[in-house]
Design brief:
The protein has 849 residues and is α+β, with helices and mostly antiparallel strands. It has six domains: 2-130, 3-Layer(aba) Sandwich (Rossmann fold), CATH 3.40.50.140; 139-187 and 470-579, Topoisomerase I, domain 2, CATH 1.10.460; 191-255 and 393-464, Topoisomerase I, domain 3 (Distorted Sandwich); 262-390, Topoisomerase I, domain 4, CATH 1.10.290; 593-704, no CATH class; 710-838, no CATH class. 35% of the residues lie in helices and 23% in strands. The chain contains 24 helices and 32 strands. It has a six-stranded antiparallel barrel with strand order 7-8-14-13-10-15. It has a four-stranded parallel beta sheet with strand order 2-1-5-6, with helices on both faces. Strands 21-22-23-24 form a four-stranded antiparallel beta sheet, covered by helices on one side. Helix 3 packs across helix 5, helix 5 runs antiparallel to helix 16 and helix 6 packs across helix 15.
Length: 849
């Protein structure tokens, strides 16, 4: 028996049916190891040594694979046919060697582009070793991404609070989106006019002609700039005579597009089906891994991560047979069509995306697929078939016309087209398709050279130039592919990361950069411009390709990159925050200082009229504030034209306003309650509140300190051993760390806002070594004496989550309720409800008369 390892259980299930009892097919569930998200996982000082970690779920699967291999005759690695697939095979092999599960058993690597029985059996007949250059290209990419992320992100956190992180490819993709937004902001609209005449031939046939020249000068799009000018030309044409100068009918041929690649599939699915890039890949993955069609499980399409545009010879033959059977011999070219990609840095080692069996027409499998699968499969099938069909033959007719009168002359043009032979367009006849472009039969009537035409009407139409559109997922992917940024397997993940980090939002399929994304891009362009240059990123991709071809040393690529990059990071570490703010104010002026309605200086504070507005960096984000702070507390979020005003002070009943939250826009105030001073964001029951910690005086609380308090508890990072989040906060007994239900004290309040992951792990380890289990959890918050007496009401975090406590009654907080935001009234109500339910009475210190 041989053990076969693939990535997914769906793929394993399909292949297991093909191979029978002599094989055991197991799934790795994707990557089995990864670089731990902590410092030291890639070590440049040790010639880029890398440490890999296996999570608990992967460890169980690897143990299962290891046990099976120990009892097997050999191991077959059958992961996907790309760098990622090669890397998974390498990881599995490395782990099995560490577990001593292989011994002398043969190890073979096989690849297949389609999950069909024939493709899998053919692959088993042609095994090879794990491709070392492909693995090295993967290792280089992972090391580069890690080094950029874990070196640049801490700089961002210190110099640009609120920024999450900066990835190598994501930062460049974000720059594309932000550059387009800046282009839109700089765009100045212009009005222009177009003029058309409705004419009629001597045979009484009407048609339209557009003005193209005036007084011997060819007109450009924006040449007619006013209604007066347009009306003057209209009057001239209404008094003119029209004569045909020439009629030219020119036959043209339109060739089909090549079969889909990953990026063109994502673009087409976005524009025609409304799919996101990630949704497209999810549906395509299912079509690739196998669908039960007629009692047989088979992959319906070839591998969907590719930038190749060719089809295998046997696929060309099958496509040509399908064309002949479906459309007839006239639609079949004499020879198969061959394509080459125009994408920069493309690798064409794999086939284009195509049906595995062209006889499985969209109609024949529609009942076996869900609606999304059916629509995507139909698109793939038609594109692949059309790519091998005859060109469409179109006759385009152009008529040049002269208008003369009152000593002036003008030129007009009429155009029309007729599809003489639809060719590959026949594949798209039933369903309108972008490739078909709906070639209308824009026929012109019979028109002869030299004949005089009658004028019916002349119309002028006003138009306004439009700024370039924001990117869609489809157009951004197309641009990234043109520039050679990223690879087919990275596009969907890159876009998802930008959205998840709140750098970009998607509305009506358009990508709009958020203020946080604009800040990150402006910072990187100002201080790390080389690393967000399109050519630099594309050049790195080209080097990765050369590594995968065995033509370049992967360690050399990393040494060259790290030498320059680490030096740039060291330089930026000494940068003053004032320098950062100056650069951001200049780079983001249209966003930060939008024009004022009264035409005044957009940087003048609208509240005090004296201070200058500037970007301010709080501990938890950036906002716009006045230079006269603290005398003037004006603030606003980035991208907003308004801000707070004097009326807010009156609405606060004497509570001291500290400014507004730059993220939510809610007012932040300093207040005094029955249990002492506190800061509050917003109004009503849902308002966030936080008491002032010991040692903090009310007169010293400013906007930044209030934001910091209201942001607690703060996520420090994931514990490297458990993977669970460590958070820092301030409780009844002072500053603390919380990890997996256990608390550890911090020395000072300031530590809550500055403690890093390494120190947090050490503090937690020290607390654990000292014991302390079994005690009542420390109070997160003391709400004060219960109205009915019997001691204080506290908020605590227990084994099963946060709860409120009074005497011997513990009442669990509702799911999602922030422990720091619990009020006394809410706590009393929860305690009373729990006491009534449990048959206990709340503790009382006195009887109520």
């Amino acid at each position: 028996m041989n053990v076969v390892v693939v990535e997914s259980p769906a793929k394993a299930k399909t292949i297991n049916k093909y191979l029978g009892k002599d094989y055991k097919v197991l799934a790795s569930y994707g990557h089995v190891r990864d670089l731990p998200p902590k410092d030291g996982s890639v070590r440049p000082d040790e010639d880029f040594a890398m440490s890999w970690a296996v999570d608990n779920a992967s460890a169980k699967r690897l143990n299962e694979i290891a046990r099976a291999v120990k009892e097997a005759d050999g191991l077959i690695l059958a992961t996907d046919p790309d760098r990622e697939g090669e890397a998974i095979s390498w990881h599995v092999l490395e782990v099995l060697r560490q577990k001593r599960a292989l011994k002398d058993k043969p190890v073979r690597r096989v690849v297949f582009n389609a999950i069909t029985k024939q493709a899998v059996l053919d692959a088993l007949k042609n095994p090879r070793d794990v491709d070392a250059p492909l693995v090295e290209a993967y290792l280089t990419r992972r090391a580069l991404d890690y080094l950029v992320g874990f070196t640049l992100s801490p700089v961002l956190w210190r110099k640009l609070p609120g920024a999450r992180s900066a990835g190598r490819v994501q930062s460049v993709a974000l720059r594309l989106v932000c550059d387009r937004e800046a282009e839109i902001e700089r765009f100045v609209r212009e009005d222009y006019w177009q003029i058309a005449a409705q004419l009629r031939t001597p045979r009484d046939d009407g048609f339209e002609a557009r003005l193209t020249a005036l007084d011997g000068k060819k007109l450009q799009k924006l040449d007619i700039k006013s209604q007066e000018e347009a009306d003057g030309i209209k009057a001239m044409l209404e008094a003119a005579t029209f004569r045909v100068l020439s009629v030219e009918a020119k036959p043209t041929r339109r060739n089909p597009a090549p079969p889909f690649t990953t990026s063109t599939l994502q673009q087409a699915a976005s524009s025609r089906l409304g799919f996101s890039a990630s949704r497209t890949m999810q549906v395509a993955q299912r079509l690739y891994e196998g669908i039960d069609v007629g009692g047989e499980t088979a992959g319906l399409i070839t591998y969907m991560r590719t930038d190749g545009v060719q089809m295998a010879p046997e696929a060309l033959d099958a496509a040509r047979r399908a064309i002949g059977d479906t459309f007839g011999a006239r639609y079949l070219p004499e020879k198969p069509r061959h394509y080459s990609t125009k994408a920069k840095n493309a690798q064409e080692a794999h086939e284009a995306i195509r049906p595995t069996d062209f006889t499985r027409t969209p109609d024949s499998v529609r009942g076996k697929l869900d609606p999304d699968q059916a629509r995507l499969y139909e698109m793939i099938w038609k594109r692949a078939v059309a790519s091998q069909m005859q060109a469409a033959e179109i006759e385009r007719t152009t008529v040049e016309i002269e208008a003369a009168g009152d000593g002036r002359n003008a030129g007009l043009r009429a155009t029309g087209s007729v599809v003489r032979f639809d060719g590959f367009l026949a594949a798209y006849t039933e369903h309108k398709d972008e490739d078909a472009e709906d070639e209308e039969n824009r026929r012109l009537p019979e028109i002869h050279d030299g004949e005089t035409l009658a004028r019916e009407t002349v119309t002028t139409t006003k138009h306004t130039t439009e700024p370039p559109p924001r990117y869609t997922e489809a157009s951004l992917i197309r641009k990234m592919e043109e520039l050679g940024i990223g690879r087919p397997s990275t596009y969907a993940a890159t876009l998802k990361t930008l959205v998840d980090r709140d750098y970009v939002s998607i509305d009506k399929r358009r990508l709009t950069p958020q203020a946080k994304g604009r800040l990150v891009t402006a910072f990187l362009e100002s201080f790390f411009d080389r690393y967000v240059e399109y050519d630099f990123t594309a050049d790195l991709e080209e080097k990765l390709d050369r590594v995968s071809d065995g033509k370049l040393s992967w360690k050399e690529v990393l040494r060259d990159f790290w030498r320059d990059f680490s030096g740039a990071v060291d330089d930026i570490k000494e940068l003053r925050v004032a320098d950062v703010l100056d650069a951001l104010n200049e780079e983001l002026a249209p966003l930060v200082f939008p024009p004022r309605e009264d035409g005044g200086d957009p940087r003048t504070c609208p509240r005090c009229g004296e201070g200058k507005l500037s970007i301010k960096l709080g501990r938890y984000g950036a906002f716009v504030g006045c230079s006269n702070y603290p005398d003037c507390g004006f603030t606003r979020q980035l991208g907003e034209a308004g801000g707070d005003n004097e009326a807010l002070e009156a609405a606060n009943d004497g509570n001291k306003p500290l400014g507004s939250d730059p993220h939510t826009g809610e007012e932040i105030t300093l207040r005094s309650g029955r249990f002492g001073p506190y800061v509050q964001r917003g109004e009503g029951k849902e308002a966030k509140r936080s008491s002032l910690p010991r040692g903090w005086k009310p007169e010293e609380i400013d906007h930044e300190k209030a934001l910091a308090l209201l942001s607690l508890p703060r996520d420090v990072g994931q514990h490297p051993e458990t993977g669970k989040m460590i958070s820092a906060g301030i409780g009844r007994y002072g500053p603390f760390l919380l990890h997996d239900g256990s608390y550890a004290n911090l020395e000072t309040v300031e530590d809550v806002f500055t403690v890093g992951l390494n120190r947090a792990v050490s503090v937690i380890a020290e607390k654990k070594s000292k014991g302390g289990r079994g005690r009542t959890p420390a109070a997160l918050k003391d709400l004060g004496p219960h109205p009915d007496g019997g001691g204080n009401v506290t908020v605590r975090d227990g084994r099963y989550g946060p709860y409120v406590n009074h005497g011997k009654v513990n009442a669990t907080l509702p799911k999602g309720k922030d422990p720091e935001g619990v009020t006394m009234d809410e706590a009393v109500e929860l305690i009373a409800a729990k006491a009534a339910k449990g048959g206990k009475k709340p503790a009382r210190g006195r009887k109520k008369g």
